[in-house]
Amino acid sequence: xxxxxxxxxxxxxxxxxxxxxxxxxxxxxxxxxxxxxxxxxxxxxxxxxxxxxxxxxxxxxxxxxxxxxxxxxxxxxxxxxxxxxxxxxxxxxxxxxxxxxxxxxxxxxxxxxxxxxxxxxxxxxxxxxxxxxxxxxxxxxxxxxxxxxxxxxxxxxxxxxxxxxxxxxxxxxxxxxxxxxxxxxxxxxxxxxxxxxxxxxxxxxxxxxxxxxxxxxxxxxxxxxxxxxxxxxxxxxxxxxxxxxxxxxxxxxxxxxxxxxxxxxxxxxxxxxxxxxxxxxxxxxxxxxxxxxxxxxxxxxxxxxxxxxxxxxxxxxxxxxxxxxxxxxxxxxxxxxxxxxxxxxxxxxxxxxxxxxxxxxxxxx
Amino acid sequence: xxxxxxxxxxxxxxxxxxxxxxxxxxxxxxxxxxxxxxxxxxxxxxxxxxxxxxxxxxxxxxxxxxxxxxxxxxxxxxxxxxxxxxxxxxxxxxxxxxxxxxxxxxxxxxxxxxxxxxxxxxxxxxxxxxxxxxxxxxxxxxxxxxxxxxxxxxxxxxxxxxxxxxxxxxxxxxxxxxxxxxxxxxxxxxxxxxxxxxxxxxxxxxxxxxxxxxxxxxxxxxxxxxxxxxxxxxxxxxxxxxxxxxxxxxxxxxxxxxxxxxxxxxxxxxxxxxxxxxxxxxxxxxxxxxxxxxxxxxxxxxxxxxxxxxxxxxxxxxxxxxxxxxxxxxxxxxxxxxxxxxxxxxxxxxxxxxxxxxxxxxxxxxxxxxxxxxxxxxxxxxxxxxxxxxxxxxxxxxxxxxxxxxxxxxxxxxxxxxxxxxxxxxxxxxxxxxxxxxxxxxxxxxxxxxxxxxxxxxxxxxxxxxxxxxxxxxxxxxxxxxxxxxxxxxxxxxxxxxxxxxxxxxxxxxxxxxxxxxxxxxxxxxxxxxxxxx
Lengths: 365, 534
Hints:
- Chain A is α/β, with parallel strands linked by helices and 365 residues long.
- Chain A has two domains: 21-139 and 273-327, Periplasmic binding protein-like II (D-Maltodextrin-Binding Protein, domain 2, 3-Layer(aba) Sandwich); 142-268 and 339-364, D-Maltodextrin-Binding Protein, domain 2 (3-Layer(aba) Sandwich), CATH 3.40.190.10.
- Chain A is 42% helix and 17% strand.
- Chain A has 15 helices and ten strands.
- Chain A has helices spanning 2-20, 37-54, 69-79, 91-99, 108-111, 121-125, 183-189, 198-202, 205-216, 230-237, 247-256, 283-296, 299-305, 324-327, 345-364; strands at 29-33, 59-63, 86-90, 135-147, 174-177, 222-225, 242-246, 261-276, 312-313, 340-342.
- In chain A, strands 1, 2, 3, 4, 5, 6, 7, 8, 9 and 10 form a ten-stranded mixed beta sheet that branches.
- In chain A, α2 runs antiparallel to α13, α3 packs parallel to α4 (91-99) and α7 packs across α9 (205-216).
- The radius of gyration of chain A is 23 Å and the shape is globular.
- Chain B is 68% helix and 1% strand.
- Chain B is an all-alpha fold.
- In chain B, strands 1-2 form a two-stranded antiparallel sheet.
- In chain B, α20 (362-373) crosses α22.
- Chain B has helices at residues 2-8, 15-26, 37-76, 82-87, 89-95, 108-123, 127-135, 141-151, 158-167, 174-182, 185-188, 190-206, 217-228, 238-247, 255-262, 269-277, 285-290, 310-341, 344-359, 362-373, 378-386, 401-424, 430-437, 442-470, 474-479, 487-496, 501-525, and strands spanning 293-296, 299-302.
- Chain A binds chain B through residues 67-68, 70-71, 74, 96, 98-101, 173, 178, 209, 223-224, 226, 237-239, 346, 349-354, 356-358, 360-365, and chain B through 125-126, 128-129, 131-132, 135-136, 139-143, 146, 306-309, 312-313, 316, 374-377, 399, 477, 481-483, 485, 490, 495-500.
- Chain A: Keywords: Signal.
- Chain A: It comes from Primorskyibacter flagellatus.
């Protein structure tokens, strides 16, 4: 009897305690997955700290696993034990997660905040919504940086993409990413293929051979990178003359480490980074994540992130709020965006396996 | 016991015969409690075994659950291919009769089955997953399934429902369908009956009641298909007979055209060949891929030369692992010799020097080699300063095979030194002295006396280093460039980037098999008893 009375009493206590908190239906812990480094830091400052100021008691844990997020989420899903609440991934990965049924579909207008100019979220994000499951945060670009002190005497500084393939004017090593994406496009572009036709040509075996043949001309001068930090390091060490990497990485080499490096924005490839919500979250956790995402992707928060890192906000309404001194470093700034590519998600979703096999076979020979 | 009975046996009998004769004479030997001794002994032994088993049970269960089961599960993925038959059951069934040698696309029954399967797959969001799977085999399948999925519930098949309901309004009532398919009509309308069952299951999953839902278009399509393909409905019910007579006059929907509108690739015969080829639940396709072959309707054939990569990588992995093992032996032997022959104090200091890098992070050690070996790195700088190398002709020592071998030799060296040391420290120094006192030169004493005794240490170290090297991933990834990467880098790529876990599992299985075969060969040639870890 007494046992039962205590049980009832404690149950009643728990119930009142629950009612006392207005957000009893929301979990108080959240695991966010991101890339670590300066990027995660900018998210912590722009999104998480203000959110925690409004919601004391919410505990945020970071997991720096975005690079393996797709494989890990699949494994978690198979084990039926999802431990992540919100995952930062690039758009191509988001599309795969959505295809695999591992990411939740988002009703953009319903779940996200309107732009502060009154536009609906789906209009505010516009073309950035490349998947039904994906909430973009930033636009970044993959572009080239070069050592200003290694430009040969008498030559102009490299300012167009084909200078990468011009070993005569610009001798020295180059760093390229160890995957076909972007490299194949650049190669075709410099092999005389018109920009509009690049993907039509790349869809054919002849076009793929053509791109590899072009890459062949610089193959022995290329160091292949697989982590975004490689190229900045190689540039700082003077190992390479020029190399491709994410524009934010080059920004920190130039502005924060004051290395003699400059950007070559020509033919930069835009890509997106953003959030997905894993499927299969419990109701409390989902409620918390939705609350956070709505806050963290509103106009002001996305603009705030640009204070800390040189990536452009994905909302149109955030653009005017980007700090003036950061605007010139944004890939989307008109001065930088003269000639750009947009990562062709649909094309690479289909051709990635096929072209990657050929690319890797070419590399290994 | 045998000896005893043999001892008392009459002369002329073998011990065995004697025992039998003895047993026949006195009956079975009994234990104190009256049970036969043999039985009692067996029971005691069994109890002992069980107790031993119970003692190691926690470890056994731990190993099973955390090691054997996951690895077994992963290896099984190299042949599993249930996803096609699970997602498109009707299509797989009807497609098995289709003649892939012809030039004609599959017929009506396949299109109807595909339509029904796709509807369920899209509702359960499984079609894109299947698209990802099949895209490994045929480029373009991924977007084909995604595009088709968006269109499937917008097909013009609603005309069937309208025509059936116009004929008899009861066709619009789910109750009448439930009643009909509960009875003999189910045998006459096989596709409709099966589809009705799936529709019921689907509603149960969603928590809806099938009797409150409108009859979906695909059920009318299935009914139309059954009725126009010779369903025997005579005497089943008047309503069905009337429907059958009327269906022949219905305005049909060309599903193949609807699908071709959704995605023109569906009109490509290769798509259907691939679907048929990968219909079975067990496939050899992953293994074929992992040896640079591919599955085709006419059997397994080699891939085009510009896509062959795994053969190169397997050979390279084996070759480089052997070179690394060899260079580890050369470097470790003198160190282990010093360790076991120096005075205790110096040996301990040396031991710490061996172990210190062993305790340092792998990434740190690999990155340190980068700083050492790169063109603007320490070694090149020194060579240029000494004037041995011109400034514009600095050596390339990293991002190639050489860099990988150097870095991995350094990282794996302790695994060679430690077993060598533990074997050498058991060889008494007096043997060498004895050899020399009997007139052997230094070399003979070493080669004829010392070296043979240290071979078990070399064997143990070599096995350790080789097996670790063959599966190495991080170091080749960082310093391997394009000529120094291993097969494990490709496995990692398929696990984490391309998500082709089947292919990764097949490559892993082959790697495991290669290691086991080499281990077996090693046992045959050197003998595994000759390996000593201490």
